[in-house]
Amino acid sequence: MKTKKIGLLLLTLLLILVAGCGSKATENGAGKTSGETSSAVGENEPEKLKDVKVVLDWTPNTNHTGLYVAKEKGYYAEEGLNVEIMQPGAGGSDAMVASGKVPFGVSIQENVTQGRTQGVPLVSIAAVIQHNTSGFAAPVDRNIKKPKDFEGKTYGGWGSPVEQAVISSIMENDKADANKVKFVNMGEADYFTAVKRDIDFAWIFYAWTGIEAELRNEPLDMMYVKDFSDKLDYYTPVIVTNEKQIQEDPELVKAFMRATSKGYEYAIKNPEDAANILLKAVPELDKDLVIASQKWLSPKYQDDAARWGEQKEQVWKGYSDWMYEHKLLDKPLDVDKAFTNDFLP
C-alpha cells in the first residue's frame, strides 16, 4: 500500500485543475444526472438510483473495505445511490474531487492540509482509521531499532519534504544527525524489492506491507510515527468532498456517509466477511493478505472514538501546527474549514 503518492509534489497540478473546473457544474452535484427520476416517470415505476462516483487514493486495499461493503450489501442503494468506486487518474483523487469531477474521494490529512492553505476546496468528512498506522520499517537484519540507527542507512521514499521533516524531527529528539541518512527515490518499486536492492528502511502502512511481511516470514522492525509525537498521530486516510458539493447538495453527502458508515461498521464487526466482499470486487488481490490485513485493521477503524469516522479538532490543529513549524505550510491552517463531522450519522 503506497501512501502520499500525490502529496506536495502534485499541488501545482491540483490548483490548475481546480481553477479550470471551478466554474463548471459538478458531474454528480446538485443538478440532475442520468440516474435521477424524471417528472414524466409514472407513479408505479421504481425510482431510479442516482449515479455517484467515489475515487480511491491508490489501488484497492483494506483501507477501502467499507466502501465495497456498502456497495455489495446494498447500503448505498438503500439511500437511493448507485455508487461507482473508481481508481484515480493521473492527477490523483484530490484533484478529481477538488475540481468537482467526482463528488467523493479518499485522501489523507496531509494533502487536505497542504491543499487548503493554497486555496484548494477539499473538506474531510470522515477519518477512515482513527489513529496513524504508518511508520518506518526495516528488515530486522538492518538493526534499526530507534531513530539514531537511521544514521549511515539509506531511506527509500517518494521525494516529499514531509519525509525529511519527520525523519529530521524524530532523529533530533534522539540526538541523531539526519544529514547522515542517504535519501533515495524508490519510484514504483515495492518495499520488498527495494530493501533487497538498495535501501535499508521505508515509510509503510503496517496494515498492508507489515502484514505482508509477516505472511512472507520476513520480519521487520517498525517505528510508528505517532509514537514520537502526538502531533504526528494524524488521520490517514480520510474521505473527502469539496465545498461546492456541500453547499449545493448536502443531502447527497449525508446519504453517502450514512451508507459508508454502515459499510465500515460492518467491516469492524465482521472482518473476514468484509475481506471476502473486497476480494469478490477485486479478485486479483492476494486472498491471504486481504484477510489477514482486514483482521488486523478492522478494530482500528473506530478504535477509541465514539463512532466510526469521528474527527477531532486537536488532531487537525496539532498536525497542521507541526507542518507550519517545520516550514511545510506557507501559512497556518483554518482548521474549522478543513474538516467536519456534520455528515456522520
TrEMBL record:
Keyword Signal: yes
Stretches for region Disordered: 26-46
Taxonomic superkingdom: Bacteria
Coiled-coil intervals, chain numbering: none
InterPro entries assigned to the protein according to its UniProt record, in alphabetical order: NMT1/THI5, SsuA/THI5
Signal peptide as annotated in the record: 1-25
Pfam name, any one: NMT1
Annotated transmembrane regions: none
Biological process annotations from GO: thiamine biosynthetic process
Domain SsuA/THI5-like: 61-274
Keywords noted in UniProt: Signal
PANTHER family referenced in this protein's UniProt entry, alphabetically: 4-AMINO-5-HYDROXYMETHYL-2-METHYLPYRIMIDINE PHOSPHATE SYNTHASE THI11-RELATED (PTHR31528), THIAMINE BIOSYNTHESIS PROTEIN HI_0357-RELATED (PTHR31528:SF3)
Name of the protein described by the UniProt record: ABC transporter substrate-binding protein
Protein source organism: Paenibacillus azoreducens
